[in-house]
Predict the structure.
Amino acid sequence: MTSVPLGGSHGADDNGDRRNQLTAVTVDHLDALLSGSQLGVLTAASTFTGALEGWIARLLEERGPIPLIAPHEVADRLGPSAHACAVGLVGSLAALYELPPRGDEPIVAVRQIEHLLDVRMDAVAPLNAAGINAFLAVAAACLLELPLIDADGQGQVLPLIDQSTFALDGLNPAPLVGVGPWGDVVTVQSPQRRGEPVERSALAGAGGWLLTALYPAPAVELAAAGIPGSLSRCIAAGATLRSGRGQLGPRLAQQLGGRMIGRGQVREIGQHTEPGAPTNQPAGPVSIRLAKTGSAAAEITLEVRNEAVLALVDGTVAGSAPDVICLLDPLRGRTVDLLDLQEGDTVDVLLLPAHERWHTPAGIERAGPAAFGLQLPYRGGAR
Amino acid sequence: MNDTPHTAENITLAELLRAEPMCSVQLHALAGLDRIVDEVRLVDDVEQVRSARPGTLVVLQHDIAQTAWSTAIAVRYAWERNVRAVICELDLAAAPSVISLAERLSVPLGIHEGDLPTLALQLSAIVAFPEASRARLVARCAELIAQQDEVDEILAVVQTELAGVRVTLHTPSREGGATERSEAEGSIRVPMGPLDVRSGRELLATLQRGSVAWARTVRAVLEIARAQIIACEAAAQVRLAQRRQLEEWTLRQLVDSRREDGERAPDGPFAPPATSRDPQPSEPRSAADRLGWRIGPRVIGGSILPLDPAVAVDDDLDLALAAAWPQGLDLAGPIRYHAGWGLWISFEDDNASLEQTQSAERRALRSLGALLQRCLDDVHVGLTLVAGIGTPASGDELSASLRHAELAARAARSEHDHHIVTFSQVGARAFLAAADGPALQELAMDTLAPLAAAEDGRALARTLAAYLDCGGSTGRAAEVLGVHRNTVSGRIDRIRRLGLDLDDPSTRLGIHMAAHLLGR
């Protein structure tokens, strides 16, 4: 996956075609960051971030710009013995809006991890540069006054914290520290790499969300295990989304190396019970049926398990997890929020291939169709 | 891709879908029904559909049978791999999108709410041994057909069990061209054969599609149905004949037993009714009640006879008349009676006054006449019939009214224009009618032998009859015949010259009667 830089700062580039790489996040990038964070996010999306956006804007104004370090530069910029960890929200976005953060949770979490491991963190990385975690990472970096590593562990929104390239590379999410809305600090140490189920079980008692510092590791290792360029790509995609020009889907496809699956009108949005669905997934299964435009009576079916994980065109698999299926609203020029989607709406379906780490057998096992209860092999999408 | 050749050991998709285990499966997007099904596979992973051989019928099970996305993928693979059909277990909410996909791709889709592995096993057994399945079907049809005792029910069973087959029982037209055309469309004909009550009928089955083996199965079932149809119709004939016999016996007991009593008063038909001092008369009465006969309070009898006195009414003719007689008339009969059939109508009589009684009788006579006329017009049994109407009588005097009706009918034989005669019109001819027969005809010929030789013997006989009717008055006879008085006297002279003595009282009555008999 190549990273597509956005103009605004100088930077080295290997290829004459590429533009300058993004090297810092400023308050000017916030809108693009917000829009780009919702690409490929369906159920965790919301166009209303409320106070969070203002809070992050103030942080960036006061403490920005935040340096953005490309993974291959970590050794040079931070030194070989630097430490880093990932940060992210674990739990329910709805709970976050009900019980908003006080604003010091990232500091509390990271300080606690530093205390546990008796190290100082030199950088943070987003757990995933998608959804709310994209800008929560920026907020954490502001609060901690630390640089951000331009890499993330998922490349999309995945429900479980061990669905990450960090874990694929052998890193342990624990010890991890989560801080909840009532100030509870949940520390999980788990030599057997069971941080996900243990923290998940603490969520309900802690108030529904835990802002977590996890995957503490040498910065070089964390950077190498992440998906490079995630944050800058997120901002670049957001810029395209906000550009207000037409052909949103095809332009994003070209920019991010994906392809269009098709366009259709929503015929039905249905919830159903599904036998064999894993019970550790937060939301129930949803199917969206689209009448494909331009083809005689063809249908696009999207299977949603929190996010869209399968796209069928007349029974042929056109895209599936671990690749990212994005829904775009071509008429309103923005990403689609499942809560707002209605019958009759026109939707563009875009497929963004996941990082190649997800296409390994271990990656497919962790984040492929079977991880979402769909007994299907991963085939990289047809045609 | 070559299809396996159609032999008895192969089964087409159409035939498999008609098999018993498929009764509870909802079928959609039927296509490719003439193609052979080689095997049945039970799969729990859509990838197994992808690796299925062409000619397979796939049954999904477990989770993939219940979700729309997995069934859609299976249907798609089935289309790519030339799989004959896919059977799943979708619920109502999930089914429509998959059905629509199956229809677009022309992949037959079955939705089954029961045990899919068991269904797969049953279908697999049928595919492995199709002849056994056909034999089971024939046996089941035989069992069901044997329980039916009406032709309509037998045909209904055949149509229900042999899905896609239309069956009729009919008499084919004699054109050879029609036969050739029908066979090209896929039909099977089973002639009813010599045991059928009506000749020339056949069972015709039209097949919408099917293999040679299916046609054989259909023919086997039709042959079983044929036997049961013949039995049913024969039984119906026997029942009808038995009923006719009962009716005939009952009527005979009712009316003729009165004669045997000898209790009749000598002064005519209006004698007081016989007392029921012995139990025998009540037996025919209760039989009459069981047959639903209404007798009285007043009745008028009717009679039907063949026009030709030489024709004897046998059982076949009686059944033919019974079959051809219009239904729903307010009329008892026709019932075998003497040389023909008897019938009667019943009517009320207030007995308020003589005029009212007479007008009621006239009304009844008119209605009986109208009914008889209509029946003679509409009934066709292959020979001409005549009818007579008797005299109004009380219910107990039915026999007298029937006798009068019979005499009237016999008199009607000599009426060229009217096939129905009322007794009151008959007059003296009643005696002739009563006595009529071949012997009497010969006697008449002998008596008027001299006239028979003449060219206009018949006209002479008619003239003689009228002349003697009018008591020897040529003038009145001429009026009756519609000729000139001199014609009458001239003819009478010729008759006398031919040697007939009209003045001898001992022979005159005979000559008079002979003249009537021969003057027809």
